[in-house]
């Protein structure tokens, strides 16, 4: 049985002379959230625009539900819902007028449009704004309307390009929850340059830098890869540094102040911090704080770009 809804093979694209993406391969399962992570200019929008059939690739193939987007674009696009980075909203339409129009553009049967629009509004929590002009909605609700147009024809595959960009923290949480909900019975692909976004929302990720894939795997693989390797601890009565260095798993100790130390370690972070707490109490070092340090996204990008790690 074919488990994937999308297959991308050796996708490359060149704007005039510059390659924007090179040899991207990916497969997306029929349900769940798939994240495309990358810094600005990494090639996320280019990849998504090609996958949605709004940009013709220079090389490579995209198959949606087994159908080649290049050979049979009209048929393949029936399975796709797309919210581009700049939502294509008509601000002087009401929510209902706009969604009916989008359903017509999708060539839906006229008699099924009313129910489809109601379903999309219901899913996106915008039922009560049916008669509201889009220009009079907040940014978060405008984004919901953008997502509603992407699912109005009940596609199997929904693509959202930076869906939480420009929203406030509450709206971000709401949109993330909505994304997870619509991914219960279809595949959703989202792009972001925010690491916490993929960690909060995605089941699987691909990370691209300078147009090539530098990481591929589940969010668990990614979190394991990103596992902290240092922590800072404060002891009111610390021993000499050499004493710390004798502890199994400790690679290096930096003395930051008389009571504050940074420890570089190898192994499981929970195990290591628990060991320090227990030893601190047992030996009378009087530990008062232990803080795990995580790499910044910049560091992770740099590491991954350099290592070209691939977990498939
Ligand atoms: N129409 C275009 N013409 C020429 N170069 C382009 C065009 N669109 C994008 N590029 C270039 O292609 C590269 C990838 O851009 P793309 O927009 O796909 O990246 P992105 O990861 O989506 O970034 P962002 O998050 O900033 O949108 C960048 O170097 C960008 O400058």
Task: Please render the helix and strand layout as text.
Layout: E1 4-15, E2 18-29, E3 32-37, H1 44-51, E4 59-64, E5 67-68, H2 73-77, E6 80-83, H3 95-105, H4 110-124, H5 139-151, E7 157-161, H6 169-182, E8 187-192, H7 195-201, E9 204-209, E10 212-218, H8 219-225, E11 230-235, H9 241-245, E12 250-255, E13 260-265, H10 269-283, E14 287-293, H11 297-307
Helix pairs in contact: 3-4, 4-5, 5-6
This protein binds adenosine-5'-triphosphate.
Plain-language structure description:
It is built from 11 helices and 14 strands. It is an alpha/beta fold and 312 residues long. Strands 6-7-8-3-9-10 form a 6-stranded mixed β-sheet, sandwiched between helices. It has a 4-stranded antiparallel β-sheet with strand order 2-1-4-5. Adenosine-5'-triphosphate (ATP) is lined by residues 15, 20, 38, 40-46, 193.
Short description, anyone?
The chain has 312 residues and is an alpha/beta fold. 36% of the residues lie in helices and 29% in strands.
Low-pLDDT runs: 308-312
Shape, please? elongated
Average residue-wise pLDDT: 89
Share of residues in strands: 25-35%
Order of strands in the sheet with the most strands? 6-7-8-3-9-10
Secondary-structure class: alpha/beta
- Tally of domains: 2
What's the count of strands? Answer: 14
CATH architecture of the largest domain: 3-Layer(aba) Sandwich
Order of helices and strands: EEEHEEHEHHHEHEHEEHEHEEHEH
CATH class of the largest domain: Alpha Beta
The biggest beta sheet is recorded as:
6 strands, mixed
Look up the CATH topology of the largest domain: Rossmann fold
* CATH homology group of the largest domain: P-loop containing nucleotide triphosphate hydrolases
How far apart lie the N and C ends?
19 Å
């Amino acid at each position: 049985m074919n488990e994937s809804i999308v297959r991308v093979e050796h996708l490359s694209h060149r704007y005039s002379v510059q390659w924007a993406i090179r040899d991207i391969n990916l497969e997306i399962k029929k349900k769940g959230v798939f994240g495309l992570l990358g810094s600005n200019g990494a090639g996320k929008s280019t990849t998504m625009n090609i996958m949605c059939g709004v940009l013709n690739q220079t090389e490579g193939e995209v198959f949606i539900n087994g159908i080649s987007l290049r050979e049979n674009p009209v048929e393949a696009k029936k399975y796709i819902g797309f919210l581009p980075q700049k939502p294509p909203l008509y601000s002087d339409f009401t929510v209902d007028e706009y969604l009916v129009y989008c359903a017509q553009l999708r060539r839906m049967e006229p008699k099924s449009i009313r129910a489809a629009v109601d379903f999309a509004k219901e899913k996106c929590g915008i039922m009560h704004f049916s008669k509201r002009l889009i220009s009079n909605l907040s940014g978060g609700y405008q984004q919901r309307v953008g997502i509603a147009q992407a699912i109005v024809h009940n596609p199997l595959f929904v693509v959202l390009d930076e869906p939480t960009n420009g929203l406030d923290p509450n709206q971000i949480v709401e949109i993330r929850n909505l994304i997870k909900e619509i991914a219960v019975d279809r595949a959703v692909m989202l792009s972001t340059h925010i690491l916490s976004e993929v960690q909060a929302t995605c089941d699987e990720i691909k990370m691209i830098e300078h147009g090539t894939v530098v990481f591929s795997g589940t969010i668990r693989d990614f979190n394991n890869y990103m596992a902290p390797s240092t922590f800072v601890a404060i002891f009111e009565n610390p021993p000499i540094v050499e004493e710390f260095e004798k502890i199994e798993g400790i690679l290096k100790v930096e003395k930051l102040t008389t009571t504050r130390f940074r420890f570089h370690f190898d192994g499981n972070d929970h195990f290591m911090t628990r060991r320090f707490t227990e030893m601190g109490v047992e030996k009378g070092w009087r530990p008062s704080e232990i803080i795990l340090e995580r790499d910044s996204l910049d560091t992770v990008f740099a590491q991954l770009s350099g290592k070209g790690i691939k977990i498939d």
